[in-house]
Write a structure and sequence with these properties.
single chain; 141 residues; Aminopeptidase; seven-stranded mixed β-sheet; 4 helices; 38% strand
Length: 141
């Protein structure tokens, strides 16, 4: 059973770091110095758990920038990314944000389009991986 929990970086740093290390540093070869950007303590952090095992994460900076979405390889294609996005969009609305932004790896652009994000045309490189900036205007409940 998958559940999504809002956690603080202080309480969940070890679990969130392990997920991000496995996906970004080991799997995608992102340089470690780029992964740990000092933004985690002030970001809204979500953690996906399968039973009680941490398997995914997503963060939102105070300015509404989403990032660091990662799901461990054995747990992909089970809707965990969708659950993380839905919950974070709820939190953003609850916090009164009117716009969300993100930098999507180009292969993930179709995933974010499903949530109403709009992609800029320009492709840029980040950590050696092609990305596109995306944004979404939020309507309040």
């Amino acid at each position: 059973m998958i559940r999504i929990e809002r956690v603080s970086w202080t309480e969940a740093e070890e679990a969130l770091s392990l997920i991000r290390r496995a996906v970004f540093i080991e799997e995608q070869r992102v340089p470690e110095v780029l992964e740990w950007d000092g933004e985690d303590k002030t970001a809204v952090q979500l953690m996906a758990l399968d039973d009680d095992v941490p398997v995914g994460t997503l963060r939102m900076l105070v300015n509404g920038h989403l990032g660091r979405m990662a799901v461990l390889k054995p747990f992909r294609n089970r809707g965990i990314g969708h659950m993380l996005m839905q919950r974070m969009m709820e939190i953003a609305r609850d916090n009164g944000l009117s716009k969300l932004t993100l930098s999507a790896q180009t292969h993930a652009v179709p995933f974010y389009l499903q949530f109403g994000f709009i992609a800029d045309n320009e492709v840029f490189m980040d950590a050696g991986i092609p990305h596109r900036h995306m944004h979404k205007l939020l309507t309040q409940k």
